[in-house]
Amino acid sequence: MIEEQLGRWVAASYPGAIGVANSLRLSGGASQETWSFDIVHPGGNIGAILRRAPQGYGAAPARAAGLNAEANLMQLAHDAGVPSPRVLHVLQPQDDLGTGFIMERVEGETIPRKILRDEQFAQARPKLARQLGGVLAGIHGLALSQLPELRRMTAAKEIAELERDYRSFDWPRPVFELALRWLRDRDPGSSEQVTLVHGDFRHGNLIVGPEGLRAVLDWELAHTGDPMEDLGWICVNSWRFGEIDKPVGGFGSREELFAGYQAAGRRVDPARVTFWEVMGTLRWGVMCCGMMQRFRIGPEHSVERAMIGRRASETEIDLLRLLAPRK
């Protein structure tokens, strides 16, 4: 069925194309469907990815920018030289494929365990943190006037949303209470700079090759706000996958990340980065609790949700290390 629908789009969009082949639904992505396929053409096949809202899926999550905005942001980033897949098409009603977009497929690896352990990425690992700093500088440098309509987020709004979600579980956790108080007491106020914020810049959303970063994926949580949020999020311990002494994704240091960011002409505020690292750690903890809550109340008792849910306790340890570091 999906190949037939994609085939009709290909026939209308690519003169001479024979059709599509090798369609495969990819794993991952809780709120969107992702399909990989090849556009078969005598001049050479084109690898493509379909990203769309699942059939029958309800309203998008409140934090989501929306698939049309996501496609717009990815194309803006690509055109500005940020490593992002090129958008081939934004779905229209006549395509009969739902809501979403089609982009070029970028080959590479997204699985953290492989990026952090496999020999083929040994040359990439030492330079990734600095690369990511430069890429974030490029994202934050995109002109606000060119962006689609996005949510404007501040630290105060983020704290309020996290506290609302946490209290809705009716599952008291003293460390979360401590973190919320710490964040409220140290809210740095509005940033001097308001930029595009990717919102989920971390392992799983980065395609890596032997030479380094190839593409940034999943712009679903993009918004405008404090650019230091992205730098803090990539440093959250949950994205280090055991390499806890390498704060940036388990492969680099904060200093390397900051150096790449500053070399691209942007300024780092380390204190604000730390604030957002605490915020990000609490956010992931609250998200883990949400997964466990959905597992407990059903109707789908997904083992994956339970496994993620148990990681809330890990974020409590991470928060204590951040808020009360040992001397």
From TrEMBL:
Q: Please report the stretch or stretches of sequence annotated as the Aminoglycoside phosphotransferase domain.
A: 25-261
Q: Which domain of life is it from?
A: Bacteria
> Molecular function (GO) terms listed?
kinase activity
Q: Which Pfam families match?
A: APH (PF01636)
What's in the keyword line of the UniProt record?
A: Kinase, Transferase
Q: Does the keyword Signal apply?
A: no
Q: Does the UniProt entry include the keyword Cell membrane?
A: no
Protein's UniProt name: Predicted kinase, aminoglycoside phosphotransferase (APT) family
